[in-house]
Amino acid sequence: MPAETRSLQDTVVAITGATAGIGAATARLLVEAGARVALGGRRTDRLDALVAELGPGNAVAVTCDVSRPADNAALVAAAVNTWGKLDSVVPNAGMGLYGSILDHTDERVAEMMDTNYAGTVWTVRAAVPEMLRTTGGGDIVIVASVAGLRGGGDEAVYAGTKFAQVGLAGALDRELGAKGIRVTAVCPAGVDTEFALGTGRTPGSPILETYLRPEDVAFAVVTVLAQPRRLRTTLWSLWSMGQQS
Predict the structure, then answer these.
(1) Taking CA 138 as the corner, what is the angle to CA 65 and CA 72, rounded to the nearest 5 degrees?
(2) What domain count does the chain have?
């Protein structure tokens, strides 16, 4: 018999980078499955619009820059204060800059490193104590990239941040499994989102039509969360049928 999926009804999930793309798609799919979502992102107007779409009883939002530990703590607090618990967290916020190691300013490179890797660490550090306190376990699903598995030309610093996320996920899986927290790195190939537009991707480019859709990655995240608790998936890489692996 196939393994049964776990109901996500009334579970509480915090998501960073929720204003568009993968984060917003994941929020929609989770609410459709009966979950409640705490949404973090830097664009307040988009967060407000998404909460209105999902319904105030299903979503709460906090303007959040993941590179700031206090912002991550505020996001977690919003989830716990609203629904009394935190079951899972999806560190999804990220940015990309294509180009050589020398093509961008120090400030932009530092922003990418702080957002992609340090931001993931701060999100996890904020979430884990409340997950353990309020539910005694749960899931951490880190949205990384296939760039963190193989690298690639003209994306060395970006790939380095994604390798760091994948390494963090593997280490956390070993550290937190005995405490009831499963940790997964979801690693998509190219996704047709706002990601890197103007810094390596061109809006309307035909190649974007061959990429994954945000909903594809959201499907992977929600599938991981809905696994029976006896299972854990540590790494999921996904490609569209139109992309070469």
Answers:
(1) 15
(2) 1
Q: Is 117 a catalytic residue?
A: no
In a domain, 6, yes or no: no
Q: Cα–Cα distance between 28 and 23 in angstroms, integer?
A: 9
Strand partners for 62: 40
Average pLDDT, the chain: 94
**Domain membership of residue 94 as a residue range:** 12-238
User: Pick the catalytic residue: 85, 98, 117, 162?
Assistant: 162
Kindly give the residue spans of alpha helices, DSSP state H, lying in the chain: 21-32, 44-54, 69-83, 106-113, 119-134, 147-150, 156-176, 214-225
198 sits in which H/E element: none
- CATH of residue 29: 3.40.50.720
Q: Which of 85, 117, 158, 211 is catalytic?
A: 158
pLDDT value at residue 153: 82
Which residue type, as a one-letter code, is found at position 239? W
pLDDT at 196 exceeding the cut of 70:
no
* Region of residue 82 (phi > 0: left; psi between -120 and 50: alpha; otherwise: beta): alpha
pLDDT the model gives residue 2: 56
Contact in structure between 48 and 20 (CB atoms under 8 Å): no
Q: Does the active-site annotation cover 162?
A: yes
Flag whether 232 is in a domain.
Answer: yes
